[in-house]
Design brief:
Blueprint lengths: L1 E5 L10 H9 L2 E4 L17 E4 L5 H13 L4 E5 L10 H9 L4 E4 L4 H9 L12 E5 L12 H5 L4 E5 L5 H10 L7 E6 L7 E6 L3 H7 L6 E5 L37
Parallel strand pairs: 1-4, 1-5, 2-3, 2-4, 6-7
Antiparallel strand pairs: 7-10, 8-9, 8-10
The chain binds S-adenosyl-L-homocysteine (SAH).
Amino acid sequence: MIYFIGAGPGAVDLITVRGKTLLEQADVVIYAGSLVNPELLNVTKKECTVYDSAGMTLEEVLAVMVPATRAGKLVVRLHTGDPSIYGAIREQMDLLDAEGLYYEVVPGVSSFFGAAASLKKEYTLPDISQTVIITRMEGRTPVPPKEDIALLASHQATMAIFLSTGMLENLSTKLMEGGYAADTPAAIVYKATWPDEKQFRCTVGTLARTAKENHITKTALILVGRFLGNDFERSKLYDPAFTHEFREGNDPLPSWTEDLK
Ligand code: SAH
């Protein structure tokens, strides 16, 4: 049996309970060594065989997975964050389907959740943005033209931009082309939730300079939007005057609620 497991964003205790339990039982682990915290491997059995996929091709990964699974071994493919976000798992699953082998996916905490937690921010604020756009700049991996950053930026929604730390000059230009003002709040979060995490608050216009000054060239998420600022309305859900399925609202409001405004 093969399990694709999300390792979480970095901190060893941010893997799920299910993911950790399977890791403890694994006979073979193939982990994405460039981004997965190697300390996670400390929970594996002594006789577990561990491969770092950083230097392997898709075919080499499959050449480990397929015979091990056929021999009845428990195989774990450990991906950073959540495997469904830039995890390149689809191509592995398709080849396993072709081999007639069964697998399951165990979700993980994506780094964009880790980054929000580190920044202590909420991506979805009333009146600011109720949408999160997860995207990347085009690099050697193509991005469909309709998803050009300038087009996405025109929504002024919260944006979490992966895999783009080396292209920040270009990213800023595209974001501004799309309508973000140069002074729109932005943040660079390097190695969110790792012990050596760093976070930098800046603006759309100063992304490249901020990264350069702080020598950040990879393993960072770029977050953009007014959710990083302070001008938002409180939620309706917890508003004393708001009636919903589980609570009757008070209108007019009791006087003590004035303090909450
Ligand atoms: N599946 C992963 C993303 C893999 S793509 C996830 O869900 O998080 C790799 C990119 O993710 C990196 O280039 C960087 O942009 C981002 N990334 C991964 N881990 C990170 C972390 N701990 N902090 C900040 N960015 C991270």
